[in-house]
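Memo to structure team: turn this sequence into structure tokens by end of day. - J.P.
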Amino acid sequence: MQMEMVNKYLTGKCLIATPQISEGLFARSVIYVCMHGPEGAMGFMINKQLKEFYFSDLISQFNIAREIDISAEPIVLHQGGPLERIRGFVLHSLDYKKVGTLPIDNNFAVSSSIDVLSDIAVGKGPRYNLIALGYSSWSPKQLEQEIIYNRWLVTEPSTELLFKTKDEEKWQQAVDELGFDINRISLFSGRA
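Reply from structure team:
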């Protein structure tokens, strides 16, 4: 099954870090892949919150919202990855579409305009959203090689996993949805 997924492009899928990635930023990470093709791949970690920077800091920095929907739950920001950590992206449900919104599949889209942040701040944004600063990227064939060498497993994303599950529980939730013991994956790969 895993090899079949490597042969198909992974846009709109989630990557789950295996125990082989035991240290650093990607340890126990879940990444939503928003673009994958011959030129490489790009995605956002969906389970690593930023601790030092908040949504209120972000909107005040851009001076984009004068009135904030204070009845809403506080909005956390996520560390999307190690690249361009000051660049923001919003992964969201398809109920929100504006200029600059890029649909990924039939369920999710990505927006990176200031409009989406302003709309979220005043309670008029997408029903479900996740704001990430920075992104993760792979050069051509790099992600495929990492999957072959058991660094990542691939799963289907769901609204529940992306937006409703607590960040600290997303990795385990994604692993549980696979239906097998991830600790039994070999650290070695080979060809028969």
